[in-house]
Structure formats: structure tokens, C-alpha cells
Amino acid sequence: MSASLTALIQGLLAASSLLVGAVLGIGWEPGRAFTAAVMAFGSGTLISAIAFDITLPVFQSSGFWPLVVGFALEGTLFTTLVNYIDNQGGFIRHPSSSRRFLYHHRQEEASEVLNRVEHIEVLHSLSPSEMQALIPLLKPLAVEAGTMLCCEGDPGNAMFLIVEGDAEIYKNAKLMAELGAGEIFGEMALLTGEERSATVIAKTPMDLYALGKADFDTMLSHSP
After folding, report:
1. Mean of the pLDDT values across residues 190-196?
2. Helix ranges restricted to H, the chain
3. Residue limits of CATH 2.60.120.10 in the chain
4. From 159's CA, which of 36, 62, 102, 122 has a CA 20 to 30 Å away?
5. Cβ atoms 209, 138 nearer than 8 A
6. pLDDT value at 201 more than 90
7. Assigned CATH class of 119-222
């Protein structure tokens, strides 16, 4: 067998891994742990090959100890600098790290919102998937006592979920009722499309979540 033919066959075998991987990827979706293990194995193989090519001439010319000392010093310096950069927020430079950070950050935010709205009874009828879709749409709102949250006669552009605090409902300047933590208001104007039927004023400092009309309509279309 000629040298050129041997080189061709070896090249085809080396490149076939890409085709085999593509075919496997189309017909089979491996788990995250398996994918990570394969990537780690490939990275380790590549690093080992490079390290062998670099270190062998050094070992042959200078011996064992200079090689070990150089590896130890450089490894320590690299690890220290990388940890420092990552601790300062530099890990975002890696796409995989930034995606993992954003995923966990969103999970923490969603968990915090769930903990704050779990006592709102109207949400108890929603399924887990509906809650998961709703949570990112809720906008936190903190107001001082005396803040007007809804004005009678205005168009309805949002509904509100009370986390903490109390509010008063006025109709024609007459006090009609009070609302407290766990209650909602403003939803009827969104459902009917009519103007606000009453004025709502914060009686105490309040923490609320607001759901805008556009997001409300989107949720309603997906989950009547």
C-alpha cells in the first residue's frame, strides 16, 4: 500500500468521527452527564497529546526536576489567577458558565417570587406549568402610604397582587372596603375591557406585584 493511500485512509478514519457524531446526534439525544463526560475525555486527550509533544524534548534536554518545578509553578499561578478573575465576575466570559449562572439566577428569582405570593389564594388554582409561565411576567412594586394605585374611570392597564400592606377602595369618594395581603385587585377591568370601577389607594406602605394587560391577555389566551 502506497504512502499516499495510507494517508488518505487515515485521514478518512480521523474525519469519520464527525459524521458518526452527527448521525448519533440526529437519532439520539444523550443526557447532560454523558455529554459532559465525552467532552471532558476529548479535552483531556487533546491536552495530553499537546503536553507530551512539549514536555518530551524538555525532559530529554534538562531532566525531570526542572519539568516538575515548571509545571507546579505554572499550574499554581494559572489556578490562582483564574479563581481571582472568576470571583470578580469574569466567569461570564465563558458562554457555558454565563448560561449556567443565568439559569440558576432565574431559578432563585422565581423561587423568591413563589415564596412571596404563595399566600395569594387565587393563584392556588394554577397548575405548576401555569405558575412557571406567570412568574417572569410579575413586576415587583413598592409604594408608600397614600399612593393611588387605580383611579376610577381610568382604563385598566394592570392587575395587582398584594404581598404586604393594606389598601382602601373608594367609589364616588366613598370608602367601600379594604384590601390586605393575599388579595388582588384590578382584574375586572382587564377581563371586561371597561374603565376602572373604583379608586384604590395605599393605606400603608405596600409591596405588590403587577401584571400588565398585554401579559394578562397572553396568559389568558394560553390558559383560559
Report:
1. 83
2. 3-27, 32-62, 64-87, 95-117, 128-134, 187-192, 213-222
3. 119-222
4. 102
5. yes
6. yes
7. mainly beta
